[in-house]
Amino acid sequence: MSKINITGMTLEEMEEFMASIGQPTFRAKQLFNWLYKRRISDIDEITVFSKKFRSELKEKTEMGHLEIVDRQISADGETNKFLFRLRDGHFIESVFMVDGKRRTVCLSSQVGCALGCSFCATGRMGFKRNLSVGEIVAQLLAVLKAMGTDATNLVFMGMGEPFLNYENVINAATLIGHSDGIAVGRRKITISTAGLVPQIKRFADENQGYKLAISLNAADDATRSELMPINKKYPLRQLIDAAKYYSERSRHLFTFEYLLIAGVNDRKKDVENLKKLLRGVRCKVNIIPYNPTDDRWEAPTEETIEYFLRELLKLHIIVSVRRSKGADIDAACGQLYHFYQDEKQS
Fold first, then answer.
1. Rounded distance, CA 312 to CA 284, Å?
2. Paired sense of beta strands 153-156 and 127-130, if any
């Protein structure tokens, strides 16, 4: 008989499981707390359970631990990147970043990605499969245990398009936010999308409460379609309308991410197009200077970054420049995966 994987179970699911094996439901809350808040590695660590009950649990259940295959640490020690092997042999990545008092974990939602954004290393992998709720949560548990600390913020900006694994991502975020478990608040969790219009509207209608980030990266359809093929399906006008719909329904600001690439989307006409596009839109903008991972593109100059910042501030919106953390390691999403695969084949 196959064992039940308890990592990814909700409290209600644990209560049902305990009832099915003749245990009182309060045992579920104990298991939930020890698994998610205390981050145990083995059932035998649950000292509030008798030795006999621990043995019974070990016969019937298993914990969905992920194997850490590789770990890179930036020179300043503030960025740790983890490569995990899943049980079926696939690999995913997670990143832990420190910025002042903020401790942010970047989680993957899929193995690979189907969207094929030209600046993203993950896109070169193609799409393999969605991650389960348990695999998403297990990433976080493994990172926090390795780092010996809690997270203040979570971002679903790792491998994959979160809104193409919508239910599992939302369910994982809900589980992560439970007050008896990992307990990261809803407004401390950001879900990023490349611009899937139907899912943005669904996210708004469901009033999930998590923060929303949208990868914009260009202010004209031709450039954005070249960078992000999803724009051919959901062009800018549809995307802007969906973003406005989210803002109106949720009454929350969302963030447009703008990856600034020299000679591609950092010209004067680009910032003018961007100002026209965003005029009247309630949003924040994160300018992210491109961090070169190959010879295809170059990073923008500091002068260009400052120019973009000054021009966008004229819209009287919140604009920030987000510098890439861990530039001295394989910081771009998918890079550590490709490095490991190349090493195996050499």
1. 10
2. unpaired
- List the one residue out of 134, 143, 136 whose CA is nearest residue 111: 136
Task: Give me the CATH code for the 67-345 domain, please.
Answer: 3.20.20.70
Among candidate residues 16, 45, 93, 306, the one labeled active-site is 93
Question: Taking the model in full, what pTM does it have?
Answer: 0.94
333 as an active site residue: the answer is: yes
DSSP E strands, 57-118: 61-62, 67-73, 79-85, 91-99, 102-106, 110-112
Q: Which fold has domain 4-62?
A: DNA polymerase; domain 1 (1.10.150)
Amino acid at 324: S
* 45 is a catalytic site residue: no
pLDDT value for 295? 79
Active-site option among 106, 120, 283, 333: 333
Q: Reply yes or no on whether the pLDDT at 334 is more than 80.
A: no
